[in-house]
Specification:
The protein is 63% helix and 0% strand. The chain has 276 residues and is mainly alpha-helical. It has a single domain (13-47, 54-275), classed as Ferritin (Up-down Bundle). The radius of gyration is 19 Å and the shape is globular.
Length: 276
């Protein structure tokens, strides 16, 4: 078995990602993702693997609950602010797993597909480390608050089709972060947490590129399958029961991430239909 942190030239990048995905300790996972030199790994898009019985590797805590069971805490209190930072840390922990899963799971894509998502995994690992360190400095630890599993749940639902995965994880659930981050940043600034605000600046910058990567490969597959991107997205969102997106939308960030004007118009039309 190839150790996830190996730098041997014979190591398979996609197999290494599968092994990394199975690590339970998130600090260890993030460290090993950041430390792996992909340039020294082999890359074979035709490789296929047997899916382990349990994915992803994760610690026993936090307790995973339905989103409706999560408490809304005022960020003006230390516990409330820590709860918000914890929620963001949990998102980034999931994001590491999502990027690793894309690399190992889906075969037959161009080499650049795997290289793109590997870079995403490394950046998500950095985001986790920054937020986790900030949470620790506040006197709390990852796992101290309950969390929900919405991101990984959608990954499970779309694991049989890379097109659906790209449409509904980076282009839907992760794109919601582009809309939400400025308001969250403002809340943290309002209570004097400039350090957290600076971390969110880094995350927003990187997430624009991550969503852009999702857009790039979604459109690549739509062309390959002779599908219209806008109408296909609507079909996939309904088929896989994607959450209804609600505004306000960060249109500048979404445009920077590669959403077209037709896609933004469809997004607004869908929102109006849902609230009518």
């Amino acid at each position: 078995m190839i150790a996830p942190h190996t730098t041997a030239s014979s190591a398979s990048l996609r197999l290494a990602c599968l092994h990394l995905l199975q690590i339970n300790a998130l600090e260890q996972k993030a460290t090993q993702v950041r430390g792996l030199d992909a340039a020294r790994c082999t890359l074979d898009p035709a490789e296929s693997f047997t899916e382990p019985t349990r994915l992803p590797g994760r610690p026993e805590r936090p307790q995973l609950v339905h989103p409706s069971q999560l408490k809304t805490r005022a960020v003006g209190t230390p516990e409330g602010r820590a709860g918000l930072i914890h929620a963001l840390t949990h998102i980034e922990a999931n994001a590491i797993n999502l990027a690793l899963d894309v690399v190992w799971r889906f075969s037959g894509m161009p080499d650049d597909f795997y290289k793109d998502w590997w870079r995403v995994a490394q950046e998500e690992a950095l985001h986790f480390e920054l937020l986790n360190a900030h949470l620790n400095e506040m006197g709390f630890a990852y796992g101290d608050f309950p969390a929900h599993d919405g991101l990984w749940d959608m990954a499970e639902r779309t694991k049989s089709d890379v097109l659906a995965r790209l449409a509904l994880v980076p282009r839907t659930l992760e794109a919601r972060g582009l809309d939400a981050t400025p308001a969250v940043r403002n809340r943290l600034v309002s209570v004097g947490d400039q350090a957290a605000a600076q971390i969110l600046d880094i995350i927003l910058r990187d997430e624009i590129n991550h969503v852009a990567i999702g857009n790039r490969w979604y459109r690549f597959l739509c062309v390959a399958r002779q599908l219209d991107p806008v109408s296909t997205y609507a079909v996939l969102a309904q088929r896989y029961q994607a959450p209804q997106l609600k505004g306000p939308f960060n249109l500048a960030a979404r445009r920077a991430a590669g959403f077209t004007e037709d896609e933004l118009a469809a997004l607004n039309t869908s929102t109006r239909s849902a609230t009518a």
